[in-house]
């Protein structure tokens, strides 16, 4: 079992509690295969084995490369002698009674989760935004950022580190590093589509450097955008065609539901680079608080992650708490430069999904 201890998982099974007070789990418990509601740990089964058939020990794994033809075991599901079935779903929780209580609770749950992190052999992936800055302000661990020399993320990380009175170690990306890393990421994650590879690139290359410097755990601010309303498509609901929900709160739940697929990719890429991810903002207590936020505590006008930013001011300078950031693949310029390499290799933009074709050529 990865993640929560056996007693916590057993209690979750007995009570059907989707948020039993853990940071996720996946594996086997007393003959039952389990994966938490947000899929915070990867789990795979052989594709050829039907959902009703008995699973032998060699037919499931946390690592897709250990199986002949793996498929992801769905988050929130269990598998036992009765077959595969959904056991947990994301709970619907009543909103907080007032704004002050909501912000205070968000602050307490975030701080408690971060402060509980063991800093032994730990480094922090640091972009200079509010999510990773909360980790940096409360954990005694070195900070790392990846990007091309003229990237937004390097500038933002340096300025935020200065405001926090510390320093950040810069992993400067190069075309050679990208060409080497792309097939390694694709094999580890079993994904070659352009978006997945672009997102994983800066994480993977930071993790490689962190592992090379002697650390084996990497703390990340993952989950904050999904939980607290950090995406434009959530802010623009229901007008944004990228979400089906007709309210901001509904759009929040919709993007939270995308986390299992994203986390699977990121965990596998980071492990392939030699580190284990640590994600305190994805603890059950933080998820529970986020699900109770009204829409105006997620998005208010042009401001996103309203409650998280308000709570963060207890730990961070206002300049960081209020700061917007770019997605890592864009802020690091990894996406731009992967596109450039694809075009230089003859995969022009007029071609269908030209970057994915380039990635597949590197894997081959």
From TrEMBL:
Catalytic EC class: ligase
Domain of life: Archaea
Entry's Gene Ontology cellular component terms: cytosol
EC numbers: 6.3.5.4
Keywords: ATP-binding, Ligase, Nucleotide-binding
Any one GO molecular function term: asparagine synthase (glutamine-hydrolyzing) activity
ATP-binding found in the keyword field: yes
Region called Disordered, residue ranges: 55-88
One Gene Ontology biological process: asparagine biosynthetic process
Pfam family, one: Asn_synthase
Gene3D superfamilies: HUPs
Domain annotation Asparagine synthetase: ranges: 120-238, 253-346
InterPro entries: Asn_synthase, Asn_Synthetase, Rossmann-like_a/b/a_fold
Entries under PANTHER family matching the protein: ASPARAGINE SYNTHETASE, ASPARAGINE SYNTHETASE [GLUTAMINE-HYDROLYZING]
Protein name as annotated: Asparagine synthetase
Classification of source organism: Archaea, Methanobacteriati, Methanobacteriota, Stenosarchaea group, Halobacteria
